[in-house]
Amino acid sequence: MNFYSIKAIYKFEMARTWRTLMQSIASPVISTSLYFVVFGSAIGSRMVEIDGVSYGAFIIPGLIMLTLMTQSISNASFGIYMPTFSGTIYEVLSAPVSYVEIVIGYVGAAATKSSILGLLILLTARFFVDYEVQHPFMMLAFLFLTAITFSLFGFIIGVWADTFEKLQIIPLMIITPLTFLGGSFYSIDMLPPFWQTVTLFNPVVYLISGFRYSFFGTADVHVGVSIGMTALFLAICISLVGWIFKTGYKLKS
Q1: Cα–Cα–Cα angle for 162, 165, 170, rounded to 5 degrees
Q2: Within a 10 A sphere around the Cβ of 23, how many other Cβ atoms?
Q3: How confident is the prediction for the chain on average, in pLDDT?
Q4: What single string gives the DSSP state of each residue in the chain?
Q5: pLDDT tens digit string along 51-72?
Q6: pLDDT tens per residue, range 38-49
Q7: For residue 20, is pLDDT > 90?
Q8: Cβ atoms within 10 Å of 195's Cβ, excluding its own
Q9: Which listed residue, 4, 28, 199, 224, has the most CB atoms within 10 A of its CB?
């Protein structure tokens, strides 16, 4: 394992974050804070509790997941797309660096940035609502596992995309709607039976449900199923990344 190459890629990607703190960190935190103000304080004060949890606290896991998934995809996809767009990816591919080391460097940096962002939002939520984390180690495990999984997914999107527009299509047109419809702002038990069944086909439901369980000990789906679905999505992403490097899809042509 060439740790020097991993460190070089990782530091290069993280350096871009520190140069653009307003865009990379401040902007997502401020945007999420507005959700807490509108939904948590203004609307939440007029709503009843959900599963014994105040509405303002109930939406915290969903909002963190929303930001975590979109930022993980955005960071990883942009990180690998720019070298491909500028042609510098060939320098990386021709260097004595294995595919595993390339993925660890790019995905590791993207997952680190989104995890830091998720923790900052968690701390920011304290200014608006009171909450407790019943299972902190499980919460961190879900946080990091989701960050890694969607960073891998973003890496795949970055390799697939050939325009800046394509980088935004899946996060905006697929991931964000699935997150909003996946129980971020409500419990799926509140839906009619038919729509409860339909919602279970949304993979984001299992991520939000498992993450919410680590906070409040209640979930729409059994936590074991949530962990299994997250692990399955991670395995699929790893397999696709392996296939990309094995075939050289859009990297060697």
Answers
A1: 95
A2: 11
A3: 86
A4: --HHHHHHHHHHHHHHHHHTHIIIIIHHHHHHHHHIIIIIIIIGGGS--BTTB-HHHHTHHHHHHHHHHHHHHHHHHHHHHHHHHHTTHHHHHHSS--HHHHHHHHHHHHHHHHHHHHHHHHHHHTTT-----S-HHHHHHHHHHHHHHHHHHHHHHHHH-SSHHHHHHHIIIIIHHHHHTTTSSS-GGGS-HHHHHHHTT-HHHHHHHHHHHHHHS--SS-HHHHHHHHHHHHHHHHHHHHHHHHHTTTT--
A5: 778 888 888 898 899 889 988 9
A6: 776 666 666 767
A7: no
A8: 12
A9: 28
- Assess whether pLDDT exceeds 90 at residue 144: yes
Q: Is 32 exposed, middle or buried (0-12, 13-18, 19+ CB in 10 A)?
A: buried
Ranked by mean pLDDT, the top range of 86-100, 105-119, 188-202 is 105-119
Angle (nearest 5°) at CA 217 between 212 and 221 = 60
If one counts every other C-beta atom within 10 angstroms of the C-beta of residue 10, the result is 19
Phi, psi (deg, nearest 5) at residue 195: -75, -25
The model's pTM is 0.89
Q: What's the token pair of residue 52?
A: 């014994």
Residue type, 241: V
Q: What's phi and psi for 201, nearest 5 deg? A: -85, -5
> Is pLDDT above 70 for 12?
yes
Nearest-angstrom CA–CA distance, 134 and 145: 18
**What dihedral do alpha carbons 160, 165, 167, 169 form, nearest 10°?**
-100
